[in-house]
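Notes from the 1:1 (GR / supervisor)

We went over the backlog. Supervisor wanted to see one worked example end to end before approving the batch request, so GR pasted a single chain during the call. The sequence is below; no edits were made to it. Supervisor asked that the structure be written out right there so they could see what the output format looks like.
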Amino acid sequence: MATFVLVPGAWKGSWAFEAVVPLLERAGHTVHALTLTGLRPDDDDATVATADLDTHAEDVLRLLDRHRITGATLVGHSYAGMVIAAAADRAAGRISRLVHLDAYVPRDGESCWSATNDHVRGVFAAGAAATGYSVRPPGDRDPRRRPHPLASFMQTVRLTGAVERIPRRTFVYCSGWEDRTPFAEPRTRLEADPAWQVHELPTGHDAMHEAPEAVAALLTGG
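Structure output shown during the call:
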């Protein structure tokens, strides 16, 4: 059985995977769903203002240490593709698989800001106007969403190449929002890379809510 560490994208907490977690657990897997620093309900303004990509990578590494996890499957949705790449590069061989679920797949020196498209950069800029250090959630969908630390979008990732030695790497492209998605480029890039498995789901960006059974099947089936 596998051990999954599920990392949510921007503005969200562990609840983002609430429909997927029981499906994995019923199949006998161990599941840890994270809420990143600055996104927790009791985080104060100073915590939000100082949290960056390194902070979030350390959140993942601390969880691995706390539970003495080896052979983990790291799953990152959206922004969290940056997080799992950074964490896996520092995790000293404790990661057996990466799953980028409609998520950024950064190269060394990229940031979420530089890797995304103009539509998403506009969302970030407009959302940060009120405070200058946090990005308010766009729209009015889930009231549990929280302002996201701006620094985590802006900080560049530092990758040594260790992440490229992880034996299994999966990219899941959600095709139901092709007019706005920033993930068409990584899909094309990774389809040409034999080290990656690329899958497509006909859902919007939040596949975990739209099609939790399909997401769980991809996670457990490879």
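Supervisor's comment: Residues 3-221 form a domain with the Rossmann fold fold (CATH 3.40.50.1820).
Batch request approved.
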